[in-house]
Design goal:
Helix content: 55-70%
Shape: elongated
Distance between the termini: 81 Å
Strand order of the largest sheet: 3-4-5
Order of helices and strands: HHHEEHEEEHHHH
Strand content: 5-15%
Structural class: mainly alpha
Largest sheet: 3 strands, antiparallel
Number of strands: 5
């Protein structure tokens, strides 16, 4: 192919719309390969086509990811309530979600993994990846679950499995209604998991501001709210809880 024809071919590809299509990516790659063999082609021009191909490939990967997630969400059945939580309420634990989720998303080219960071709180990030190369992630944080007679390791493990379950649910856009291990709001009778996390964050903020002792503050707060754990505070008392925490700023 002559240089003039090569340049015209490159120009035609450069003017292509950026809709993600495998044939488009292949066409750009073909032009890049031919340009690379022509010493008279400006290297900067080749670099622009490489960037263009990366953009097209990324758009195609995102489109494939979105399609797979949408199909998974429409296909995954409700998880079986296989465990008993507080107040003898049944809920679906992580293994129940994995049982219905894993086979379906695997067929769709999706997979997930978790990344964990622990400071004074535990943060779990669910990374959802498609075989096409696109990945998205979301994170949730919470304190170690020290309720009951758990030792330190059990407290961490309880929070980890809880956060893994909910980050996976969020990543796939699944409904968690009716899921109650003492953290969620099945039936709307206790605060939602998001509200519980918000209350924990607010306590952290206030305790830091007043230079208080968090365990002592939490014990006093829960006694006032007549609950053993933040996750067991009635949904109707959520605003009351927020007001009570904020009131500690004024009383200091």
């Amino acid at each position: 192919m002559s240089q003039a024809m090569e340049i015209r071919s490159a120009q035609s590809v450069e003017e292509m719309p950026l809709a993600p299509a495998a044939s488009e990516s292949a066409a750009i790659l073909s032009v890049i390969e031919r340009m690379a063999m022509n010493p008279q082609i400006d290297p900067d021009r080749i670099e622009r086509f490489i960037v263009l191909k990366e953009r097209v490939d990324a758009a195609a990967a995102k489109k494939a990811f979105d399609a797979a997630v949408a199909k998974a969400k429409a296909t995954i059945p409700p998880a079986e309530k296989n465990a008993t939580g507080h107040n003898s309420k049944r809920y679906a634990d992580f293994s129940a979600y994995a049982k219905v989720v894993d086979p379906i998303i695997s067929e769709l080219g999706l997979s997930y993994r978790f990344r964990t960071v622990q400071t004074d709180r535990i943060t779990v990030t669910c990374v959802l990846t498609h075989e096409g190369g696109h990945a998205e992630e979301n994170s949730l944080s919470g304190p170690a679950d020290t309720s009951g007679s758990k030792n330190a390791i059990q407290a961490i493990g309880s929070t980890l499995t809880y956060l893994q379950r909910y980050t996976l649910v969020q990543a796939l856009g699944l409904a968690a209604a009716g899921d109650d291990d003492g953290h969620s709001a099945a039936g709307g009778d206790v605060v939602t998991s998001a509200q519980a996390l918000d209350l924990n964050d607010l306590i952290d903020t206030v305790v830091e501001e007043i230079k208080g002792n968090r365990p002592a503050f939490l014990r006093s707060f829960l006694k006032f709210m007549k609950a053993e754990r933040i996750e067991e505070i009635p949904a109707k008392d959520y605003q009351k809880a927020v007001t009570a925490i904020n009131a500690s700023r004024v009383s200091q």
